[in-house]
Amino acid sequence: MLRRIKTFFQPKTDYQANWEVLNQSHRAGFIRAILPVGAFRRRQSALNQLELVAAVDSIAELTDYFSAVPTAKKIAVPEPGRIELTLAVDTIVPGLRQVPLIIHAVRPEEFLTTALFETCGIADRTALIKSAAERGMTLDRSGLYSHGRRVFVPSFEALFEQLGLETIPAERLDSGYSFPQRGCASDRLVTLDDLQGDLHMHTTYSDGSGTVEEMIAEAMRLGHHYIALTDHTERCYTQGGMDTVRFRQYWRRIDQINRQFASMGNPFRILKGAEVDILPDGSLDMEQDLLAMSDWIIASIHFDQVMPREQIHHRIESALANPYVCAIAHPTFRTFTSDFRLDLDPDFLIDRARNYGKFLEINSQPRRLDLDETLSRRAKDHGVRLVISTDSHAPHQLSCLRYGVNVARRAGLTPKDVLNTLSFQELMAVRNEIFEYTELEMFARWHQTLGEDPPQ
Question: Cα(first)–Cα(last) distance of the chain, in Å?
């Protein structure tokens, strides 16, 4: 089947539908083009079904085709042009037995507008229809019309241009926000290519399955310019957490590799890091003198998670106040495999991160995606920068960054909102500025508790 279909869905771009290619693909079979729409097109974190729009010459042929697919079950045609079926996909996704699939079969000239309508939320669809009316045109799922005649539009970009609007990325087509007028500058959403490095991962030094060298090699293959190796501290004994002696050995190994890279003229750099547990009393599971030797510290709560909100807040604020902590990892402890969340007020988390000049993580592990898009947007709106990291425990997981980027784009984040879009030198400059500011703040507070004016 895949050999007969020209697919226009390309994750690195927003819209890639070209009418000339669409027409040429007629030679490939009765399906001229096919495009994922709806929640999948908007890259939502969780889906309850897949939707496609297919440009076809014969809807009957399409129905007959899927009726012959061995893994297709419960095929129904509830209305003309709409095919509903369930696909068994055990061989594609282990553990996932069946996926509801809806196919909107349309004539080729209806392909673009149907795809747009099936991706938009109700508010955005209404806004697009209104924009067309303001320009004396009519827009519906079958096409764009002027004085009763179809307006030829070869691409989504051309359609938005006809409406006098800037092209909207698919991820934002259910946001309900105002569409920018043509010619008005709009912020570009962050892309995977903008990310310069990954700042959360684990190796065989704790609970990862990849060695330091394997994680570095994969990161370099993916085009990263830097990574932070952030294995667990001692409290995470079930995750192979390390004591002080082992951390010193670990970081000496990283220093050695960095020197080797520098001697060869290789600009790739590894940050000496750790994922440090926030203990029940708010202290960190690493001594201050060892923290001071680090390049990148992320803090998280893995144990004693069921506590009153006030105590959780105290632990989070204590960690953020530490001058050596850079970011809070998977801040709410959300996962898709459990209903559990930390008893944490998100506004408190964001407010304290802003006050201490620290960062919050979008954890790109598909089972986490924490922070989610709503809280990521709220952090952006309050001036808190995000870090998109993978929390990888194996080399192949480093490619999960794209899932965090999906969250960021749906949250409306731009490159300037994401810390690891910076070069290595820029990243370290920001880190050093924050550390110096936090240390000065703590120094001033200490003198104030003594009833003294801090030295100028």
Answer: 73
Neighbouring-strand partners of residue 149 = 146
29 CB-near residues (< 8 Å, 6+ apart): 4, 5
Helix axes 373-381, 401-410, angle to 10 degrees: 60
pLDDT above 70 for 93: no
DSSP tally for the chain: helices H, then strands E? 14, 15
Express each pLDDT in 337-360 by its tens digit: 788 899 999 999 999 999 999 999
Compute the distance between CA of residue 160 and CA of residue 179 in angstroms, rounded to an integer. Answer: 10
**Does residue 295 carry a pLDDT above 70?**
yes
List the beta bridge partners of residue 35. Answer: 53
DSSP string, 51-102: EEEEEES-HHHHHHHHHT-TTEEEEEEEETTEEEEEEE-TTTSTT--EEEEE
192-449 shares the fold of 2-172: no
pLDDT reported for residue 8? 36
The pLDDT of residue 11 is: 35
- Maximum Cα interatomic distance, the chain, rounded to a whole number of Å: 84
Q: For residue 101, name the pLDDT band (cuts at 50, 70, 90).
A: confident
pLDDT of residue 99: 75
Strand 269-277 with 226-229, pairing: parallel
**Could you give the C-alpha distances from 13 to 33, 37, 169, 279, 311, in angstroms and in order?**
17, 14, 9, 43, 44
Q: Is the pLDDT of residue 64 over 80?
A: no
pLDDT at residue number 203: 97
376-404 pLDDT, tens digit each = 999 999 999 999 999 999 999 999 999 99
Check if the beta carbon of residue 223 is closer than 8 Å to that of residue 194. no
As given in the structure block, the two tokens for residue 81 are: 């042009």
**Cβ–Cβ < 8 Å for 61, 29:** no
- What is the arithmetic mean of pLDDT over 289-301? 94
Give yes or no for a contact between 231 and 266, defined as CB atoms under 8 angstroms apart. Answer: no
The length of the chain in residues reads 456
Give pLDDT, residue 427. 96
**19 exposed, middle or buried (CB, 10 Å; 0-12, 13-18, 19+)?**
middle
Q: Which fold has domain 2-172?
A: Beta Polymerase; domain 2 (3.30.460)
The pair of structure tokens assigned to 226 is: 């830097």
Fold classification of 192-449 (topology level): TIM Barrel (3.20.20)
> At residue 116, what is the residue type?
L
Q: Give the start-to-end residue ranges of the domains of the chain.
A: 2-172, 192-449
* Predicted confidence (pLDDT) at residue 4 exceeds the cutoff of 60: no
CB neighbours (10 Å) of residue 149? 8
